[in-house]
Design goal:
This protein has 4 helices and no strands. It has about 200 residues and is mainly alpha-helical.
Amino acid sequence: MKLLHIKTFNDSIKTDTIFIKETIDKLHHCATFNENIENSQLLNNSFTIFLALIAGLIALYQVKSNIISSARINWIENLRNAISNYTVEISNCGLILTNFLSESEGKSEEEGKAILKIFYKKYEESANKSGVLANKILLYLNSNESEHLKIEKLIEKLDTHLHKKDISELNIDQIEADVTEIISISKGIFKKEWEKSKKLFKI
């Protein structure tokens, strides 16, 4: 009987040991599982924050690009209007002077003065408008750009040509040629700037 009792006691110890070991293993498994879940959640949260930051940066870049692009488009429109009005007024100045020369040819001094009085007021109005527009154009242009510099020089050339002391030297064909060149150069500038504006809308 004593031997049987010892055997049973030993079996009980073994059973309890196995149970304790299984319990520890289960607890360890649960702890590891929970740790994996926490790590997974942390990874997901970090990834979500990262995506949010990227989205924010992209949105900020897009807003900045749109502002720059809008400003560039406004600059194009303002410069186009200024050049368009300037070329009209400067051509009108040349035409007024040409008509004056034609009308006063062969006339007496008194008759010439009377004709000058008629034409001078028209010329003064057109010259003042073209002067204001010329300054406006120059403010929009960048002298470091070769095409912009060409327009600046043409405006200076036209101004010198139209304000000669001896207006009999006026060459209307040269004025028209300079105006045509300004328009041609301007079209190239506008096309180039418009392409830049379109690219800014893209990411």
